[in-house]
């Protein structure tokens, strides 16, 4: 539909965000995808369909539909601050709402203990495209008083994570950040990029290399899914091993590799 007018773009963004599922996504990402689809598609109707599909692929596909964050926040408030066991059980329940964290739950403690053994305790973290991964904080080998920054594009989820940080006594902050538009610049010991590079590749293939080059972190924990959301392997290990090797070409990183049932994990160190 090229050329399109600013009004066409505005109408498309409005049409996309009539769905509550897409209204909760950072506007810059919705606008970016809407503009790209207007550029590519022959007419408005196919641009709308394609934009919704892409937004679903990069965000909606992972989250349970209609999460009632207010309900979860109320349950969180009812947990006494010193009841670690109850808080951990709560975190596990919430992590089941996001496919990525749900898959990691059977081995969550081993996951972080193994992958971060050489650099723990970690005193500052930047969790990028975090999903609900900050709820795994009780299982991470972090230093007392660790600062935990997190970002994603799903706005009510970020508000809920800030409530979780406050309730769990974590020095943490979750902020909206569309990684296709900016690279956070906080200086941290560890940046976390779990199962996110394939999503970002769908937006722009240059984003992965740019992130790795520009993040201000001593170490970056990167992972790829080893199975599809439906649980099939579909050659994903081979595909992502090749992708990761290409991503590492010419970079200064020392790489440690870990293998988990659903996930291929790499710790990159400068
Ligand atoms: C496969 S999930 C991974 C979630 C989490 N890192 C984990 O492994 O538990 C991908 C995440 O990327 C987020 N996302 C998608 N596009 C993004 C973008 N442009 N900027 C920041 N986050 C994005 C989605 O909302 C989703 O939470």
Descriptive report:
With 270 residues, the protein is of the alpha/beta class. It folds into two domains: 6-60, Helicase, Ruva Protein, domain 3, CATH 1.10.8; 70-269, 3-Layer(aba) Sandwich (Rossmann fold), CATH 3.40.50. The protein is 45% helix and 20% strand. It is built from twelve helices and seven strands. The protein has helices at residues 6-16, 20-23, 27-40, 44-60, 69-77, 84-95, 99-104, 108-115, 155-167, 197-203, 207-214, 236-248, and strands at residues 122-127, 142-152, 171-176, 188-194, 217-225, 254-260, 263-269. Strand 6 and strand 7 (263-269) form a beta hairpin. Helix 1 (6-16) packs across helix 3, helix 3 (27-40) packs across helix 4 (44-60) and helix 5 runs parallel beside helix 9 (155-167). It starts with 5 loop residues before the first helix and ends with a strand. The mean pLDDT is 95. The site of S-adenosylmethionine has 22 residues, from helix 4, helix 7 and helix 10. Residues 29, 58-59, 62, 100-101, 129-131, 133, 152-154, 177-180, 194-196, 199, 203 line the site of S-adenosylmethionine.
